[in-house]
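Section handout 9: paired folding examples.
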Amino acid sequence: MNDLRVALVQMNASKGTPSENAKKMMDLMEEASAKGASFILFPECSLTGYAPEEANSIALQIDDADILGIRSCANKLGVAVSFGFMERDMKDLDKIYISQEFYYNGSRTIYRKTHLSDKERLYMSAGDTFPVFEAFDISFGQQLCWESHIPQISYTYRKKGAQVLLFPYASGMTGDKCKENWSIHLPARASDNGCFALACNLLMNGKGGGLAMWDPKGKPAAEYFGQDEHMLICSIGGQLPRETYEKGEETMHSLSYFDRARDIF
């Protein structure tokens, strides 16, 4: 797998002020690029703020000026970016999704949250696809917030060739609680599939926080759990377990569990 310098961001996102949030995000993209990062991961609903009960008034369509501005900034910097917003369907205006766009070099891929919480179901529609996207010859998949507890989603992405799993959150958990929660299941998403796992959390009214990366063996490689706006720069890359498996060079310490799994269903 290619080496890549990444920036994980936790930030406050005001509800219903996308232009203000977009300005902050573009400033952070500039900062991340200046520090050598080529990919920036923003939290769930970083552009619109997270407020399902207000979705009808704050949702954006995918050709909104603030979304176009973020894409333009990414083009100027030559970086890839993943960012979240509440999205109104352009064909069916009654449908609103919690979406995460991955954009790079003129190409965008949108993931619409497929598994909604009880509260989200009251106001939002669920997506039904799991797109893998490419940047810098690396394959990415993403799932949002509590979807990280559903291993079948990560498995689906890995089956489609994903090398990096992205977990943008808007959980409201404090940093300490976030660290406790993530340490239970996110290392397993990484190690079971032999993928890097990257997570970031939205700040909401002084609550939230959490930035972390796990390597393909599920070992923590970088983390920050303060509750202030923060950017964590880290690097991913190197030989993945699947590459060791394909070369026939596995040891008991470098097994590709995904490749050795039998189809039991």
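Moving on to protein 2 of 2.
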Amino acid sequence: MDRATRKQLKSDNFALEVQHGFEFVTGHRQAMMRWAVAAVAVIVVAVAIFLYVQHQSGVRQEALQAAMRTEGASVGPPTNEYAAFFPTQAAKDKAAVQAWTELATKYGGSEAGLIAQYYLAGHAADAGNAKESEKRLKVVVDSGNANYAPMAKLSLAQLYASEGNLSEARKLLQSLIDHPSGLVSKEAAIIALAHILAPSDPQAARKLLEPLRASERSAVSRQALTALSELSR
């Protein structure tokens, strides 16, 4: 998933959670690490806008918005005076990491702080630093936040799977299946589990996906059919 795709806001949270289908298990290790966090990072932006920015005011909101502007800045020569630009991707990444780090440090227990941890996890994954990404995601999981903890579990499970730690990945996904949330549905967790089982146990993956192909939710059935098609190949 490239950075432009990561920033797109779509209305169907389920589609956001599983939009790349079986690409997760067929790419290179670093690409899988990036996907694991990036897929959720899109949701984080939406949640930040709708659940935080609209309901908060003051310094934390301003700091969050400033960090988001840096994260969303363009790379290259400035083309207008109203948007942020950086000369190189490296310069942009450095500024973004600094902004998110300051936000996480100052407001660690707040929703703004949890959003910062997500973005720091994403940047760590982009840099190939799985341990740092894992540490950041665990902070969000341990927060117990009803919105962000389940999403962090989803990303953490995918990150573990990218490292071959299928046992821990399955535990996290099973907990999401048993206790779904508003932003990580039972179906999304099932499809994510099918993703990680596909390379080693395609029959088990197919067994998980088959019941979802007839779902009344079009996004669910579409993703299940796409995953089954990829599995057949």
